[in-house]
Amino acid sequence: MFKVISALEAKENDSYTIQNFVPSIELMERAGKSCYEIIKGNIQKEDAILVVCGGGGNGGDGLVIARYLLQDNYQVFVYLTSNHLKEETEINLKRYKGSIIKDLDEFIKTHQVKVIIDAIFGVGLNTKIKENYVTLINKLNLIDAYKVSIDINSGLDSTSGQALGALFKSDLTITIQDYKCGLFLNDGKGSYCDLKVIDIGIKPAKSQYFLNILEKEDIKVLFKKRDQNTNKGSYGRVALIGGSKLTPGALLLSYNALASLRCGVGYATIVIPKSLYNIYALKNEENIYTLFNDNDGNILFDEENLKKLLHYSSILVGPGIGTSEEVYKIIKYLLLNFKGNLVLDADALNSLSKYGVDVLKEKVCNATILTPHIKEFSRLSGLEIDEILSNSVEICMDFAKKYGVIVNLKNNVSVISDGEMAYLNVNGNAGLAKGGSGDVLSGITLGLVNKNDNILLRVASAAYILGLSADLATQKINEYSLLARDVVAEIPNAINSIININK
Questions:
Q1: pLDDT tens digits, residue range 390-410?
Q2: 340: how many CB neighbours lie within 10 A of its CB?
Q3: Cα separation of 274 and 261, whole Å?
Q4: CB burial class (10 A; 0-12, 13-18, 19+) of residue 242?
Q5: Contacts of 112 (CB under 8 A, 6+ apart)
Q6: Cβ distance 455 to 342 under 8 Å?
Q7: Which phi and psi angles does 150 have, rounded to 5°?
Q8: Residue 229 has pLDDT above 80, yes or no
């Protein structure tokens, strides 16, 4: 597991370190030298290297890099985007004794630039950049060269990951001391091909960080060797409530994900509209069925059958179920009566949004897990999509805390939080941007939260396993052709790779 910080935390850490441990000019020296050591392994002596430096600390790092390249006899050229330089940046400009470009357009015409080092903006950028910088960054992006960004890709908000007018695209981004969450969110994830982090001795201003990224080693704890003196009753019961006349397949995808998981569930019950039984019969031989009353294939509230589920360990409501007041009644009944772990997805979330989210505050469940995508979360929270994207981590955490739930806010990078801490899930690929992926995730989530320990970790691990399964599937298929069933087929292999890590 590695921590991820916001722009504010990065600034706090810098200030704390400078005030108590290391002068800022020394930190700049360490940053530039460490970046140089990485960069020189990817370039040739004969390459024409363009270092584009802003006037702030990021530009100072770039000037240190340029100095070390020059001392090592590389062909290096510096272009300054500003005449107003930070004190430490001014010092490093004087230390650099090489070429300073005055006319960038003329330089590009007369030199075959092979390497571009982007040191224009650092983590402090949080407003739209001016038009001259938009033009500059777009111009640099068009040059066919090996490109490196220092700390953060210029034009990127290092907290939200949104492009602020233009965004420098790099082959390699070298971030300083800690990963910034903007490198993974929204536009950030696609801004680089490779990402490295360097340690220059910046000390954390506080003892705990609330945003982390999982690795396989963190998830392995959930897959302990099973005790041989057990039976299916030892591993709990789960129920999947869903399906409707128009969308019967979503529930099967969730069930297939659960069945393929083989991670400890003893019994799994499919709860479906009675009139759709023939559609589901023997689709999976492991199925146990509970049949609810329905109206033309749309499930109705059925208290008698719901009571039979109250002793289950975890329940999922939502895949393919449709949005209706009857679905809301089912959710409300479970929230007020079910003491296990409840997972709400898809139309269960839409029904909550339509008929009342505040019922979440009245729950008796051990844990309530919501798995909305951005648009569903917009309905739940009442916030505009753009507002959510601009501050997704904080907004997700605030919602989770307000309602006492765990939220997996699904996007190209998902935020998973219980209101106290959060995880980012950064694996997976664009092949998951397809109908059915969320249903697979809800099935995996249901399987993992069948136990009551480490619930937040289990929810985050479900997102990780979905992404890892998709990554494994695209090694055999391509992202265009990937189907949800292909992802399901790779779940056992994904779990194997977690169980066998470091063996």
A1: 999 999 999 999 999 999 999
A2: 22
A3: 27
A4: buried
A5: 48
A6: no
A7: -100, 120
A8: no
